[in-house]
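Standup notes
- DV: blocked on the single-chain target, sequence here:
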Amino acid sequence: MAAGLKPYRQGWRYRANIALRILAATVGAYLVTALVAMLLARTLPMSRVEAVTSGTMIAYLAAPTVTIGAFLARSPWRALAGVALAAGLLALGTWAAGPPA
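- DV (later): unblocked, structure below
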């Protein structure tokens, strides 16, 4: 074995760790992206069609951010907590923005 390389891990804890991070990265990224799009569509000061289009395009930047953050977190529970916190704050902001104009 080459110097500095660790042996391949096959334990269930390692697999659960990766599975939770994948869950946070995929489902969490979708949820956060949708909430960012909704919040921006409701709050951008332009016509409804332009606000929805601009909000959706800007929201696509959230997906890779959440995905990268899920794999950079110290533990899978911190990754899930970060996604849940972001989604909660965005949902609160969307609710506070009121119905679409």
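- Follow-up: The two ends are 63 Å apart (CA to CA).
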